[in-house]
Write a structure and sequence with these properties.
It is a single chain. By secondary structure, the chain is α/β, with parallel strands linked by helices. Helix 4 links the parallel strand 4 and strand 5. Helix 7 packs across helix 9, helix 7 crosses helix 10 and helix 8 packs across helix 9. It contains 10 helices and 6 strands; from the N terminus they run E-H-E-H-E-H-E-H-E-H-E-H-H-H-H-H. Strands 2-1-3-4-5-6 form a 6-stranded parallel β-sheet, sandwiched between helices. The chain folds into 2 domains: 125 residues, Rossmann fold (3-Layer(aba) Sandwich), CATH 3.40.50.2300; 71 residues, Arc Repressor Mutant, subunit A.
């Protein structure tokens, strides 16, 4: 029997909890084990129902999501947190990721991304909805004139995230620096690097740099 991914939902709107529950119940490997309507009970609720994944709203009464996340950070928990928020402010995104959140989705993108986000975070990856990911990277490239805008095309070999990674590798950013700038782990950066080299059949970092210049990903 396949072990199901246990999910806890925390949001101050019951209608959203109900909607997400209905959506997640369509996935046979998922089990919604509980919910919270304010931040004061989230930690204890998750502890009690032994959830693997917490979907956490930022704006909640009594104790907001950031304070709840701080509690998880201070007390420790194996539960992985995905923020689901109406806000896409970069300052908030940076704060919650530093506090240990493993993913960030806007509520506008929840229907499209939440299943993929849960699966990715459960497997140890970080996950951002496209709008959030682009916001993080665009804020970074504003201060680096060597980085060229590069709209993603559906038929290209590399994913949007891989394009971001190859740009930074080509500019000689270390794995640690990339992980800090994009709020992803060093292991995730290394996995992306290996996938990029495999997809492009490139054997060295020099080859990645040549590819980035040839395809106008960076300014030489």
């Amino acid at each position: 029997m396949i072990q199901k991914i246990k999910i806890h939902l925390a949001d101050d709107h019951q209608v959203l909890i109900d909607g997400l529950t209905n959506l997640l119940q369509t996935v046979s490997d998922f089990e919604v084990v509980g919910s919270s309507l304010d931040g004061t009970t989230v930690y204890d609720d998750v502890l009690e129902n032994k959830a693997d994944i917490l979907i956490l709203d930022i704006s909640m009464p009594k104790k907001d999501g950031i304070e709840a996340l701080k509690e998880f950070n201070q007390k420790g928990s194996s539960c992985k947190v995905i923020i689901l928020s109406s806000y896409d402010d970069l300052k908030i995104i940076k704060e919650v990721m530093k506090l240990g959140a493993k993913g960030y989705l806007t509520k506008k993108s929840a229907g499209e991304n939440i299943i993929e986000a849960i699966e990715a975070v459960y497997q140890g990856q970080e996950y951002f909805s496209d709008a959030v990911r682009e916001k993080i990277f665009n804020a970074f490239i504003q201060n680096n004139p060597k980085l060229q805008p590069h709209p993603y095309q559906e038929n290209q070999i590399l994913s949007p995230r891989e394009i971001e990674i190859i740009k930074l590798i080509a500019l000689e950013y270390s794995g640690k620096e990339i992980s800090e700038e994009l709020f992803i782990s060093s292991n995730t950066v290394e996995t992306h690097r290996k996938n990029i080299m495999r997809k492009l059949d490139i054997k060295s970092t020099i080859g990645l740099v040549k590819y980035a210049i040839k395809n106008n990903l960076i300014n030489p």
